[in-house]
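Researcher: Good morning. I'm working through a list of sequences from a screen, and I'd like to move beyond sequence-only analysis. For each chain I'm collecting a predicted structure so we can compare shapes side by side. This is the next one on the list. No need for commentary yet; just the structure.
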Amino acid sequence: MWFTEDTGSIGRIGPDGVISEYPLPLPGRAWAIGTGPDGNVWFADGATSQVGKVTPCGVVTEYPVSGPPSSITLAADGNMWFSIPSIRIGRITPAGAIHEFPVDVPAEYLVGASDGNVWFLSDGSADFPPEVGSISPTVMVKRYPVGGPPRSLAGLTLGAGDTLWFSDGKLSRVGRLSLNGTITEYALPWGDVTPSSLASGPDGRLWIVDAGGSRIVHLIPPA
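Model: Good morning. Structure tokens for this chain:
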């Protein structure tokens, strides 16, 4: 398993518990990581406005982009896609060729899905409503408003059965999104949970980080 450190390193922990750490060139700091098609771990370096990769041996290579990237994911086209919250989404090939695209919305929490699209969240602001969106390999953007009262959307993740899940920390909900854009929301059965990051387990359960209670809870998604 690979992880990021606030100290500016990327780490790896093996099944035996042995930890290896690989520092980024200062003042680098990885904000998000994802496994690439080339066997490397790719990361978004928000401190230096770069996208980079770390080989299994710890060799770091970085590529400058137009602003601080906040998330990164592998898409079905075999490239890594990243978001720059100043309303851009970018694509970088394993060889390091970069293209950036305006999307007219502050996109974060990117996830590549089986439909070939990259999905994202927009948490909302005075200028943008809270939305879930997608961008296709041909850069066609679709947006699906979540609506309702003020939100705190986070933690987009792939679930079982070609679904995506996200959390709403303000309303203590999780939302399920089908790849046709249908959104269904569920109130969590615990009244004091502030959901943030999510992960889908191999048994289909949804694991949820409770940012308010410093705990991890799990939910069996409704049928």
